């Protein structure tokens, strides 16, 4: 099983990052954390990578349902969504596949939660290319 949901958007990084935030909000996710990976690596290691941002997305009702099914699931929350530049005209947007949470825990009570969150994340990704 793969661990990511992914799409390539034929738009520059900054436009795609803004559109990703909007797409997540439209699916009921808030962005709790944002890590500018390129800036962090530049500052800490003095290395350059293409623009890449990790968004920590959370849908509170789904997070609560996941915690009710598996009390240690917090180590896998929030759902990470990565927006990374491929070149000046295209950007990849990837999200953790929530089925990974189900697979890792082996807890069948996680299955419907993972399916619901996965559908929401896939909906956000799909909206970026429609």
Could you explain the architecture of this structure?
By secondary structure, the protein is of the alpha+beta class. It has a single domain (4-128), classed as 2-Layer Sandwich (TATA-Binding Protein). The protein is built from five helices and five strands, in the order βαβαβαββαα. The chain has helices at 13-26, 37-45, 60-69, 99-105, 110-128, and strands at residues 4-9, 30-36, 52-58, 79-87, 90-96. Strands 1-5-4-3-2 form a five-stranded antiparallel beta sheet. A hairpin with a 2-residue loop joins strand 4 (79-87) and strand 5. Helix 1 crosses helix 5. The two termini are 26 Å apart. The relative contact order is 0.25.
Average pLDDT metric: 95
CATH architecture identity:
2-Layer Sandwich
**Structural classification:** alpha+beta
Q: Which stretches of 5+ consecutive residues score pLDDT under 50?
A: none
CATH fold call? TATA-Binding Protein
Percent range of helical residues: 40-55%
**Radius of gyration from the alpha-carbon trace, in angstroms:** 15 Å
How many structural domains does the protein architecture include?
1
What count of helical segments does DSSP give? Answer: 5
Task: Report the major sheet.
Answer: 5 strands, antiparallel
| C-alpha geometry | globular
N- to C-terminal distance: 26 Å
Strand content: 25-35%
CATH-level-4 superfamily name: TT1751-like domain
At the first level of CATH, what is the class?
Alpha Beta
């Amino acid at each position: 099983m793969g661990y990511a949901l992914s799409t390539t958007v034929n738009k520059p990084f900054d436009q795609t990052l803004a559109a990703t935030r909007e797409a997540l909000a439209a699916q009921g996710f808030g962005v709790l954390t944002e890590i500018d990976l390129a800036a962090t690596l530049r500052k800490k290691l003095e290395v350059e990578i293409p623009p890449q941002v990790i968004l920590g997305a959370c849908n509170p009702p789904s997070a609560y349902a996941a915690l009710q099914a598996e009390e240690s699931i917090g180590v896998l929350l929030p759902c990470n969504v990565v927006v990374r530049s491929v070149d000046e005209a295209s950007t990849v947007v990837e999200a953790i596949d929530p089925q990974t949470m189900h697979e890792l825990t082996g807890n069948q009570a996680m299955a419907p939660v993972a399916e619901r969150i996965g559908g929401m994340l896939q909906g956000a990704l799909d909206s970026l290319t429609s």
